[in-house]
Amino acid sequence: MRNQTVLISGASVAGPALAYWLHRYGFAVTVVERARGLRSGGQAIDFKGRTQVTVLDRMGLRDDLEQRRTGTTDTVFVDANGNRLATMSGDFTGGDLEILRGDLAEIMYKHTAEHCEYLFGDSISALTEFADGVHVEFEHGPARTFDLVFGADGIHSRVRGLVFGPEKDFVEYLGHYYCIAGAAPANADTTGPKARATSYGHNAPGKLAISGGPKAQQFYMFASPELDYSRDDTAAQRRIIEQVFADVRWDVPQMLSELADFDDIYLDSLSRMRLTGGYTKGRVALVGDSAYGNTLAGFGSGLALIGAYVIAGELAVADGDHAVAFARYDEIMRSYAKIADNNNTGKFLAPKTALGIRVRNWFLGSWLFTLMAKYADKAANDIDLQDYPAMVRQREIN
What we know:
This is FAD-dependent oxidoreductase. It comes from Nocardia ninae NBRC 108245. One of its GO terms (molecular function) is FAD binding. By secondary structure, this protein is an alpha/beta fold. The protein has a single domain, classed as FAD/NAD(P)-binding domain (3-Layer(bba) Sandwich). Helices cover 37% and strands 26% of the residues. It is built from 15 helices and 18 strands. It has helices at 14-24, 49-59, 62-68, 90-93, 101-112, 158-163, 234-244, 252-258, 289-292, 300-317, 322-336, 345-349, 354-364, 367-380, 388-397; strands at 5-9, 28-33, 44-47, 72-78, 84-88, 97-100, 117-120, 124-130, 133-138, 144-146, 148-151, 171-183, 196-204, 207-211, 216-223, 265-273, 280-281, 284-286. A 7-stranded mixed beta sheet has the order 5-4-13-14-15-12-16. The protein has a 6-stranded mixed beta sheet with strand order 7-2-1-11-18-17.
């Protein structure tokens, strides 16, 4: 098989999923992750529909995921006095299987660490492609050469920036920011398909604050011009939330007073990828949010999982011919990734006007919301998923 040594940047969802499949098909896999270790907690992510669940089954992950899955969480929207206005069902937001991002990363790491090399606390600083490989320089470790490189490092992808161009050329800001603060409570009952919880949210025009539930202690979303801040500066992110929500009523003053107790605060923009020229270039390919991300649109984890499965499978059936495999991957995922193209969660969860909030609340109780939920379920399965493991076994027999 050609192109046997591969480097994957990123160890969240797409990276370990890709590492699993590439190792299974005989590739030598190295994963580099800028964090010093696996990131715990994070927001809950979900998988929707038979297609995504089928891939989890083929990876042998279902039992581990079922043990760590979160319970279904209904979100109740209330007014400033705590009176119930509308409910967003957790059956819509949670998909068929929901799990904390950190828990999923831990499970996938467990299934790949024995066979794949992980380099934590480092990142790619330069990439130079040659006819027969890619020379990779790292921030800390020695330079190495790989046959192929994959960017699975999120919507702010370092690999994409080095190979495809600056972020501003591909990432479209959607007008809102979101913030997750505080890990899930240690005593929260989040296991088992029958577990159900309730979180409570309050809107002011252009703002949403959610408290409670098993997935994170606090969640914020707000409309804003683009902000200039460091994603590594927790104190700056805390100040932004305190300033934006200083005039919001309900339980928000109490929530803000608790922010200082949280070390795990993450603030980022709602943004959408616009990679119109394809997800691959030469010997480099993008997978997951770095290629087709749309923040909080509801399909990110599923797209990452399917993308990793498809590109690894296409490489295997093409006997490592990256030109053939990458072209097929671009074609398949260009069609499937459309499920996340037009979603803008910020406009829905944090409408900019009082009228918009009332219309959203009405919509949640209408037949139109039910119709939207059915469309999302159908879209999640809108791919002719090949059985790559069976195809590879058949090739080996022949």
